[in-house]
Amino acid sequence: MAGPLKSGKVKSEVSLSKKKFAIIVAEWNEEITEALYEGAVAGLTANGVKKGHIIRKNVPGTFELSLGALWMGEKKDIDAVICLGCVIQGETPHFDYICQGVAYGVTEAALKTRKPVIFGVLTTLNKQQALDRAGGKYGNKGEEAALTAIGMLNF
Predict the structure, then answer these.
(1) Comparing C-alpha atoms, which of 121, 95, 96, 125 is closest to residue 106?
(2) Is 31 annotated as a binding residue?
(3) In terms of residue numbers, what domain contains 128?
(4) Whole-prediction pTM value?
(5) Number of domains in the chain
(6) pLDDT tens digits, residue range 62-115?
(7) Using an 8 Å Cβ cutoff, are 85 and 102 in contact?
(8) Residues 6+ apart with CB under 8 A from 152
(9) Does 63 carry a binding-site annotation?
(10) Domain-embedded: residue 9
């Protein structure tokens, strides 16, 4: 069963005041992805990242996160990329193809750019499960993605 990870401040061995983060947000399932974005920004700013060092870019859907992450990760001034999206299972195998493709693509973007590219994509069976993980009873996975990005910068 899902449970919230620690939220709020994390121990950082590097100064985050000069680090720049790109957050790529899928516009599909906007109610969910906006909540994830708010959680990610809260997680970053609570740990000393300046709001002006958080660059938001939108993509039409979750599948497009990979290319957006690659493009932003290739920028010299970006230190980490956070990908936020939500895929809710329907009646066709489309769900499986999207989830597999974006998971592979986000990993590829990280390997090609040699920067943290964080998979903050909810893959749920229904909308309620997504809401529960976007600020609901299981916390905010957007915030957790931000804390993961910080953790990887400490690696």
Answers:
(1) 121
(2) no
(3) 21-153
(4) 0.94
(5) 1
(6) 999 999 999 999 999 999 999 999 999 999 999 999 999 999 999 999 999 999
(7) yes
(8) 80, 116, 118
(9) yes
(10) no
